[in-house]
Amino acid sequence: MAPGNEFPALIAGVGMASCSYTPGTSPSSELRYIDPTGRFRATLRLGQEVQPTERGGKSMPMLCLRSLLALALVIGLVSSGGASAAERDRAVMALSVPPFYDSDGPRIRVGPFSEQLKSAYPDSILALVEKMKAKQGDLPVEAMFVTAVRLYDLGHKDEAVYWFYSARHRQRLYRKVLVEESAGGIGSMGFECLQAQNAFQQLAGEFINGYAFGDLEKVKLVIKTVQGEATSVPDLKTTYPGVEFVDEATWKKTSEDLAKELDGLLEMIDKDADKIRAARKRNGIEGKY
């Protein structure tokens, strides 16, 4: 998805009762979607058309993945109105991005902090993330996304927003400096990490952005913080051994350019603040996350 098409998906949210990404299933990979009412479900293949099916055999119109997500997020194609109060109040993200994360357990495999993230509880995770923050330049993108998920699940949602947007910036940097032709295919580290990062962005983003855009001033501060940290370049070569990247001398400028692109998101928030609030209220998003 091109950067210009990412911004609408950040504003709203759709109900996902259960979501998963399965690496190695196809060259384009799959996402399984189930809406909160249980009526519609679909296997979404990136870059391919999908056939969402309603229980009972009736079908929704075929839409490409980008159209399905954009419509669901922006104009409420998938309404959250049918979700029960328990579903709407549920804080834990039921998602799976193997082999890095599964909410059932949870099961976490993202490097040295995996066990601590797994065993963390509400009163301990903030101290843990302070330790992780000190080593943030060495963290894989996947670890940053999982940290955002765990913070959200344990009730520290403002901190989750920061880690999610930091992970998004590093994800975009990874994608920009990766030598695409060397990424390989199913089973290769470069390819599988890229696909997993995309899955985290989409699946966790529904929850975290659904919460974050309930307070536009706060999310603007987070975005500006991430922009300010863009001059610090992570050690991707050490974090991802065996993955080929472009000349490291270009990374700092690339990171700063990516951060600068977020100015467009900040401008859109200012310009469309009333529309964003109205859409969230209309689609039942306020208070859901």
Summarize the structure in short.
This protein has 289 residues and is α+β, with helices and mostly antiparallel strands. It is 49% helix and 10% strand. It has one domain.
Strand segment tally: 9
Order of helices and strands: HEEEEEEHHEEEHHHHHHHHH
How would you characterize the largest beta sheet? 7 strands, mixed
Average pLDDT: 77
For the termini, the CA-CA separation is: 25 Å
Binned, the helix content reads 40-55%
User: Roughly how many Å is the radius of gyration?
Assistant: 18 Å
**Major sheet: arrangement of strands:** 5-3-2-1-7-8-9
Class by helix and strand content?
alpha+beta
Beta percentage is: 5-15%
Q: Which overall shape is indicated by the principal axes computed on the Cα atoms?
A: globular
Unreliable residue runs:
1-22, 24-90
Number of domains: 1
Total helices: the number is 12
Characterization of the model:
By secondary structure, the chain is α+β, with helices and mostly antiparallel strands. The chain has one domain. Helix content is 49%, strand content 10%. It has twelve helices and nine strands. The strands form two sheets. A seven-stranded mixed sheet has the order 5-3-2-1-7-8-9. Strands 4-6 form a two-stranded antiparallel sheet. Helix 6 (141-153) runs antiparallel to helix 7 (157-177) and helix 9 packs antiparallel against helix 11 (251-271).
